[in-house]
Amino acid sequence: MSNRTPEHAGWYLDEYDGPRFWEHVNFRGGQPYLSDPIARIGADAGECWVWQGWTSNGYGRFRAFGSGVTAHRIGFQEFGGKVTADQDIDHLCRNIACVRHSHLEAVTHAENVARGSRALATHCKHGHEYTEANTIEQVRAGSKFRRCRACLVESRQRTYQRRKARAV
Ligand SMILES: [Zn+2]
Ligand SMILES: [Zn+2]
């Protein structure tokens, strides 16, 4: 069996479990997040590393240290990522089978739930619908965000009105 462990991995699993884990990963998982308006990474984040082993509810599972652990949690920690027991790992690429550390971020459970509900939101907090025409995608620090165009226009108009009022 060839060792498919990527360079710089090996922070979490030992020399026995490491190769066993990485043998189940397809490093050419493509960039499905590029067509996902809610994904929070840009094209420079590279391909998803897709788990092809045991899964449960769509999430990869791997037996290590005597129990089943989610595969993305291992992928994150294999590159030195720090996650506490009460933190979740958020998929910035929204591809739940992905185990690539740079597509993952450790967040509090509350933040993860909030992100999930924002991601599912069909309307901005002011009630404008996130249609294709009304949605502006922005990439900041490598993460993608949705912004409401109607809100942006309104805030620009408010700024303009304020400036005009002051100028008079
Ligand atoms: Zn990914
Ligand atoms: Zn809005």
The CATH architecture name of the largest domain reads Alpha-Beta Complex
Number of helices: 4
* Structure summary, number of beta strands: 9
Which ligands does the model contain, each kind named once?
A: zinc ion
Looking at the structure, the CATH topology of the largest domain is Homing Intron 3 (I-Ppo) Encoded Endonuclease, Chain A
Proportion of beta-strand residues: 15-25%
Low-confidence stretches: none
Count of the separate structural domains? 2
| Gyration radius from CA atoms, angstroms | 20 Å
- Encode the helix/strand succession as letters: HEEEEEHEEHEEH
Structural class: alpha+beta
Return the CATH class of the largest domain.
Alpha Beta
GO molecular function: endonuclease activity
InterPro entries: His-Me_finger_sf (IPR044925), HNH_nuc (IPR003615)
Protein name: HNH endonuclease
Domain HNH nuclease: 71-113
Give an overview in words.
- This protein has two domains: 1-120, Homing Intron 3 (I-Ppo) Encoded Endonuclease, Chain A; 123-168, no CATH class.
- Helices cover 27% and strands 23% of the residues.
- The protein is built from four helices and nine strands, in the order αβββββαββαββα.
- Strands 3-4-5 form a three-stranded antiparallel β-sheet.
- The N and C termini lie far apart (78 Å).
- One zinc ion binds next to loops.
- It comes from Microterricola gilva.
- It holds the Pfam family HNH_3.
- Keywords: Endonuclease, Hydrolase, Nuclease.
